[in-house]
User: Fold these one by one.
Assistant:
Number 1:
Amino acid sequence: GAGAKLARLAAVACRAGVGGLEFTAGIPGTVGGAVVMNAGASGAAMDGLVREITVMDTGGNLSRLPASALGFGYRTSNLQHSSLVVVEVVCEGVARDPALIRAGMVEKLALRRATQPLAHPSAGSVFKNPPGKAAGWLIEQAGGKGLQQGDARVSDVHANFIVNLGRATARDVEGLIRRVRQLVYERFGLLLTLEIQVLGED
């Protein structure tokens, strides 16, 4: 079901000899959430796996939608602005030796541990990468790496992550986002777009 963790999906696929899902191994969150955000890593994303989903509307009615109806784009889908809830996802991989799949997963997880701040809680990549640019590089070059507000800090490991050092509030994170955006805009003339979703006003 769509409530399954991505890590579990990767593990089940590995045991079954279904390749192509290795990139999901280190992504936090659920299968349904990954579809809504078109989550991805290492040059792959959910839009390359999903064939069909089942959704529920506010009246409790179920319907099936093909991947072509989901409006997938870079870290987005048209489900983000919909009241539909994803309840089931049909993915398609490729037949592969489980040992090779496992090796690919280990490699992806090692890369994630080496390049991302996993020691502290975060919401993942904060900004989308502009065309031809890496948001983390832009933030670092603009002087945003290590910037802190309250207990929210732009990671020293990867500048496109804001980590919680203990008691960061949503206000701390949003304030830091504004400051980072301003720094990058002043340096490069680019306005970074959020990859994370902000819920609520306060």
Number 2:
Amino acid sequence: MISICFRIAVIVAAYGTPLLSDALLDVPAPSNLPILFDSSNHLHRSLAYHPEQPARVEACVKALQEYQQESSCSRRLTLIDVSADTPGYEESDSEDSIRRQTISDAELEQARNVLLQIHDPSVVTNVEKRCQQSKQHRIDEGQDPLGFIGYVDDDTYLTTMSYDVCLRATATWMRAITWLYQQQKQNRDGGTTETSIPASAKSNGSLRHPTAMALTRPPGHHATHGMSNGFCLFNFAAAAAYHYQQLSTTAKISILDWDVHYGQGVADIVSKYPDTIRYASIHQSPAFPYMGTKREIRGNTLTIPMAAETTWRCGYETYLEEALNFLFASDHQPDLVIVCAGYDALDSDELASVSLNAADYGRMTRSLMGKIKESSGKKSVAFLLGLEGGYQLRHMAGGGNLQQAVVETVKALLEQ
């Protein structure tokens, strides 16, 4: 397969060191949709059963591989494994099915710098020290470096490798953002530098709104400026938004959170950027984190609580329209749209009681893409979806499971 390497330029940002120096994002042409995942995420796992488990990403990747094989979209969809050099993931027989591009040390350093900006530094350093000290203790005792540490709250666990997994997840979202920004820049400049895309890649016009997806875990949208909680150690969506603003200092960003639980962490962090970022959440109430209980706009955030048993036709479609109108208001035309893509509003998901089905996520994606096209004019708008919640993996689950909902999302993206 013909491929083109996107060498990311060294850009010095306001927060210090060069951005992703010498990093490569090798996206096969004419792929319009890179999907990044970390197969070494299994290093963050609970000893006992926990709904937030490595099988979530594994199931999604397997379903996307099957979709590639069954459809004509295979040349427009690229799975990119950014994992550490560790065993534990079974690669497909198809040599083009998964590309491997490990996150570099420079990317990890930059991700850490960003996390220290969006969180109170103690949030990052406490997790880092706890993991590193426990790992070193196990090594000193002649044990496997990978071990379970405990919990930071009732729901959020730590292993000796959790910091590494979450730092790599942050860098994954940031790598996707850098690629999207580079594509926007090429669209604006119309140049033919080494980051240019062949005409065949642009022929269907979808790269006018470059799109990427990050299938990472654990989720991040509950992590606030000052606290890890709700399965979430660090806030990846907020890190991605911050990173984009360092690349494009005048940019406006809209964040749609369709996870069934209110992403109070994103709302908390982006409230510090009232002029440039808007955040809208559609979530069940009452439900964890038992906040966002009123349908209201507060500054640059919109909360839309919904009742249990809400379906697409009976409520959700209207709520989504309201959220999109807020995120694409006449005085806020975004350059970047981020989706906190949780899939736990499925009727089959046991962590909530909303009644969407897998196909509804395709409808949601089409509505969002339609709004981007409608409001953007000739402007290139970047679009990043990142996995948050979604815990139903059982085959034949009524209304569909996580992996089916992810495939429906990807199908809708590839229609554009």
Number 3:
Amino acid sequence: LRGGGEEGEAWHRAGSGAHKQNTFDDFSAAADRLVEEGWTAPGRIAIMGGSNGGLLVGAALTQEPGKYAAVVCSSPLLDMVRYELSGLGPSWRPEYGSARDPAGLPVLLGYSPYHRVAPGTAYPAVLLTAADGDTRTDPLHARKMCAALQHATSGPGPVLLRLEQGVGHGDRAASRAAALQAECLAFLASHVGLPAPAPRAGAARR
């Protein structure tokens, strides 16, 4: 996706600042290609992202809500008009631009997931996760987005918030990290119709 650093600085610049929408367009095109090549079918695409990837899936969710069956959005940036006012927001101005800039505000409003939530839209099933000790991406982003989606959605899927206590942006015990990933994957699987795994032979019942 344009905006990453894997293909050099020009590639990064092509998906940052005023060109951030290119990242979301590339992500959408990748989802379309998965359907075209037969890897999945419409209505069975689940997406998950955290931190800057949380912004990515938040934008995908609000720009094309009918494309995805389920979304997990973890430790995200979602209010791009006010992101500078909390956490490490001021340090990210070179990446996203600033709402204080008359030229930058329309760009941010154009893709800010929180500001694109539209009442009456059938949003997919959504799980937002956040940590109460996160000093990078304040949990206010996930909280506000959850409330906005719960109020707006006309879809049958749930909109849930999982707020983890006593951890930060990524500093958690391996057991807690594994539990979080298991819950997220189970949420996605349940909304794309994947069957529950069969019990292993000889496994102890709980």
Number 4:
Amino acid sequence: MKKFKLVFAAIIITKIFLIPSCFPPFEPKEPTGDPDSLISDVITPELGLPEPEIPVFPISEQAVMATLFQQYAAEFRALSYQAFNLARLMLERDLRDQSVNSPRAIIVDIDETLLDNSPHSAKCIQNQTSYPAYWDEWCELGIAKPMPGAVEFLQLARNYGVSIYYITNRREHLKEATMRNMRELGFPMIKDRYMMFRTDEAGKEKRRMAVARNHHITMLIGDNLNDFSDVFEHKSIEQRAAVTDSLRHEFGRRFIVLPNAMYGEWEGALYNYNFA
């Protein structure tokens, strides 16, 4: 098997992270260990081979490909456009429903749904660390770019008279910088009453219910299944898959999902929510 190296990353990485000096470019280090010796733990028992020693890399190194995908893959942009194109179709279908009497609202997450935070991930890779390192510093800069198609869709929804509620797990002390960033990008309804930041618990159900009390929820948009319902929270890999299957008819209809390979509840499930 040909050895796989991260040399390509060093070649293109300097173009990826052309951002302010506090988030400078980085060059991934060559991993130690022989990739040729790695054998899947699924295949190994079937072949009767001894279990190989797997080299341990810094957790930040594991985010290199995900960060490159988000910043460089045209497929990533296509998936984002696809999500918001589908959201438009579902919005227009919902607007034709004359049985709806309550004001319509869309509930939407912010990070990796509307704002691209991959430069923060790059900073962590460079310094071999991970969230929450540099997170506040990054948010305060207020220079995150929009996800492809996000601004246009929400502007359209607002033009139809639909209210936009931004439910995020960013902390309250980041509210001003976040609102400034989003306002400059052209997101609609960037006002205190529509910006619902995390105050105590990470779960979003109470905030969603607060909006639902006086609105017809046309759709929810997010990159994490927890952005849609609390039934996904703190579940195992198998449980998350089972709940997803049981709600399969909601995806692409009321639940619009954005891709995020850098982090999320899926990662927590892999570690059994033990990040020590």
